[in-house]
Amino acid sequence: MKDRKKLVVLTGAGMSAESGLKTFREMGGLWEQYEVTEVATPEAWEKNPELVIRFYNERRKQLMEALPNKGHYGLAELEKHFDVQIITQNVDDLHERAGSTKVLHLHGELKKARSTADPFFVVEIEGCELNLGDLCPLGSQLRPHIVWFGEPVPNIEKAARIVSDADILVIIGTSMQVYPAAGLLYYSRDEIPVFLIDPNATSVDYDERITFLRMGAGEGVNKLISLLAAHA
Ligand code: OAD
Questions:
Q1: CA-to-CA distance for 62 and 230, rounded, in angstroms?
Q2: Domains of the chain and CATH, by start
Q3: pTM reported for the whole predicted model
Q4: I want to staple 110 with a disulfide (CB 3.0 to 4.6 A). Which of 91, 93, 153, 221 is the partner?
């Protein structure tokens, strides 16, 4: 059997929009409801950890009630024909719950917490809530396992290596405005096919290499599956 092609999929908040989770920068999106600087920065954690914890507890509660959508399931199905690696900016676990086996999280994971004393001490949060007073074994407060604005993205080099090795690149549901994740596109080899699924314009619309599928993730992944039949 010949080696399966490496299909790398970069996903953002739009991937989970049809599961009922809000995106960030659209009208009615999360960053219209909340000030980023009040809930998603190290300074916010210093100033008002209670507010930060409450914000992520709410996100986690919504996630527990959400289900993967057709797009997530379609990407998991593609593992039958391709070596699929998902790189997601999303902190939800909907790719995993749909059955994708290789998922790299760039911005952390909502259902995990980590020690404020040791960044390598990461635990699953039981239930929906992390609370002030929940401590790691070293006695330090646990914080959400989220990469906040202004913090380094520990998985970015691994992601760049994966993208540079891709045979096909697919981008789904990200406005491509947040770096370094948005820069991953430029690590892909020039000659590979690149598809982008998003119902709206994004900041990479000028790129002539990209085949645009201007539709939502569910319909878009369905269309992608038929287009990829020619590439398997
Ligand atoms: P954005 O909110 O910036 O972009 C969401 C994208 O999803 C937009 O381009 C929408 O057009 C698109 N979209 C909306 N509905 C869709 C659907 N049904 N199907 C497909 N696409 C759809 O979210 P991200 O690009 O993911 O980081 O944002 C990147 C990072 O900024 C996030 O990971 C988060 C945020 O601040 C942190 O919180 C650290």
A1: 38
A2: 1-21+68-107+153-232 (3.40.50.1220), 22-65+109-146 (3.30.1600.10)
A3: 0.96
A4: 91
Atom 33 of ligand 1: nearest residue by CA position: 89
Cβ proximity of 67 and 19 under 8 Å? yes
- Which of 21, 22, 23, 59 maximizes ligand 1 atoms within 8 Å of its Cβ, making it the mutation to test the pocket? 23
**Listed residue (3, 155, 6) closest to 84, CA to CA:** 6
Q: What is the pLDDT of residues 143-174, one digit of tens each?
A: 999 999 999 999 999 999 999 999 999 999 99
Report the residue count for the chain: 232
Strand intervals (E) in 74-230: 83-88, 103-105, 108-115, 122-124, 142-146, 168-172, 194-197, 210-213
Query: Which two tokens mark 21?
Result: 């989770």
Local structure of 72: helix, strand or coil: helix
